[in-house]
Design brief:
263 residues; two-stranded antiparallel sheet; 13 strands; globular; nine-stranded mixed beta sheet
Length: 263
């Protein structure tokens, strides 16, 4: 009888633990912009994460290595958001007249945080600047101005937030193609720079018709999506596109969360 009671208690604990895991949501950190002593973030990032099963955590920039270490430790996944340009001296180039470097507080934080988070192997989704910065901190370089250095065949930026569409071709067999279920997709973009030298940890998996790199993935197979466009902005025009990408991030992050909760 005592054994039956102990077995029943054990079963109840397993079910209770399973319920906790099922109800929990992975914590997804998001890097914000920073200007005039204020952190700023387009709320589309937050809703894209929250509506697809995660909890968005906006990360105030910090130069404190201990805080950056805690960010990496506590998060299950991360979104590296869009923003201004990376200072070109960081990747060994002289500034182009059109380059607008990001605020130093954000730069000093993200060059450390992005590198540390990539090194952790946790799931990450780099968007626009987030893809560029991931490549640069890993040893890559940038084309500083698409119109003057590549051309105007494709409009990668026209000043509009939600209406500047163009199409992207995706490599068959890539993680990105598997998630989206296609090798050809419309996207919203608003950037004037592009990846030049691709850092060793990454492989190109998508381009636009003018040859601009539109997406890269990790070579080691761990979850890392990096796109030049803004899927968070496609909530109305192409919600399935947005949701497929953010849901993939959340589900990959859920595996990290489950392992964390079991410790």
């Amino acid at each position: 009888m005592r054994k039956k009671i102990l077995l029943l208690v054990l079963i109840m604990q397993v079910f209770a633990l399973s319920s906790v895991f099922a109800a929990a949501r992975p914590l997804i950190g998001v890097t914000p912009s920073f200007s005039n002593n204020a952190a700023q973030l387009n709320y589309d990032y937050v809703t894209a994460i929250n509506e697809n099963g995660g909890i968005a955590i906006i990360l105030p920039p910090s130069g404190d290595e201990a805080i950056i270490e805690e960010y990496v430790k506590m998060l299950d996944g991360a979104v590296f958001s869009g923003g201004p340009d990376i200072p070109p001296e960081f990747y060994g180039q002289i500034s182009h007249p059109t380059t607008t470097p990001m605020e130093p507080t954000r730069f000093e934080f993200e060059k450390r945080f992005i590198k540390a988070f990539l090194d952790s192997g946790k799931p990450v989704f780099g968007i626009c600047l987030g893809m560029q910065f991931s490549n640069v901190v890993s040893g890559g370089t940038m084309v500083q101005d698409i119109p003057s250095l590549i051309g105007n065949r494709i409009s990668h930026r026209n000043g509009e937030m939600y209406t500047n569409f163009h199409t992207v071709g995706i490599n068959k067999g890539s993680r990105l193609a598997q998630i989206l279920g296609t090798t050809f997709t419309p996207v919203i973009s608003r950037h004037h720079q592009a990846l030049e030298k691709i850092a060793e940890p990454f492989v190109v998996v998508a381009r636009s018709a003018d040859g601009v790199v539109e997406a890269i993935e990790r070579r080691d197979g761990s979850f890392g999506l990096f796109v030049q466009w803004h899927p968070e902005s496609m909530k109305d025009s192409h919600p399935e596109h947005r949701n497929r990408l953010f849901k993939a991030l959340v589900e990959a992050s859920r595996n990290v969360m489950d392992a964390r909760l079991q410790k």
